[in-house]
Write a structure and sequence with these properties.
The complex is a heterodimer of chains A (116) and B (109). Helices cover 3% and strands 55% of the residues of chain A. Chain A has one helix at residues 100-103, and strands spanning 4-7, 10-13, 18-25, 31-37, 44-50, 53-57, 64-70, 73-79, 87-94, 106-107, 111-115. In chain A, the strands form two sheets. In chain A, strands 2, 4, 5, 6, 9, 10 and 11 form a seven-stranded mixed sheet that branches. Chain A has a four-stranded antiparallel sheet with strand order 1-3-8-7, with no helix packed on it. Chain A is globular, with a radius of gyration of 13 Å. With 109 residues, chain B is an all-beta fold. Chain B is built from no helices and eleven strands. Chain B is globular and about 40 Å long. In chain B, 0% of the residues lie in helices and 58% in strands. Classes of the chains: A mainly beta (116), B mainly beta (109). The A-B interface holds A 40-43, 45, 88, 90, 97-98, 100-102, 104-110, 112 and B 2, 4, 8, 31-32, 34, 36, 41-46, 49, 87, 89, 91, 93-102.
Chain lengths: 116, 109
Amino acid sequence: ETGVTQTPRHLVMGMTNKKSLKCEQHLGHNAMYWYKQSAKKPLELMFVYNFKEQTENNSVPSRFSPECPNSSHLFLHLHTLQPEDSALYLCASSQDVRDRAFQGYTFGSGTRLTVV
Amino acid sequence: RKEVEQDPGPFNVPEGATVAFNCTYSNSASQSFFWYRQDCRKEPKLLMSVYSSGNEDGRFTAQLNRASQYISLLIRDSKLSDSATYLCVVSPNDYKLSFGAGTTVTVRA
């Protein structure tokens, strides 16, 4: 496999459920990111990991919990979400956190999350 | 003021037409600029970087105007497959990327 792979593609969950989103990249990149994309809004950066260490958390509610066991894998653990959390969640990677400013990102295909 | 602003459109154009749209950015110290393309219900994909002198990639031409703090994208000889949302992305510093909300282009037969 190549590029950035996200699973599942679609997820419907109740507000009391616990679920996890998975992202895997095969590009040899060292930085990985979670973004939230809501309709008609700009992408919102949630978390940044560089060499497995979290370097940014943009005031994301604690019901979203990231995990980065190695440079190739990134998870987003979800619990007690709200309907307004329904959105497209995108994973991205870049060579490192600085490289994104010069080369941009490679995005995964996203997980479309619906909270009911 | 938003970091990156785009006209949401939609821009509806016939096949073969030329369509152009701009994006403005607020941070005058921004160094890197990109256009991404996002198809409906898909992920954004890098279309092209924008260089100071302007650059072209096939039917796509990007321009940067630092004085007025905007970048533009022009699509010549539009194809049906050009229908998408085009995201303007600006790097205000070495460690950040800011996204616009996108401009939707619809090319009709």
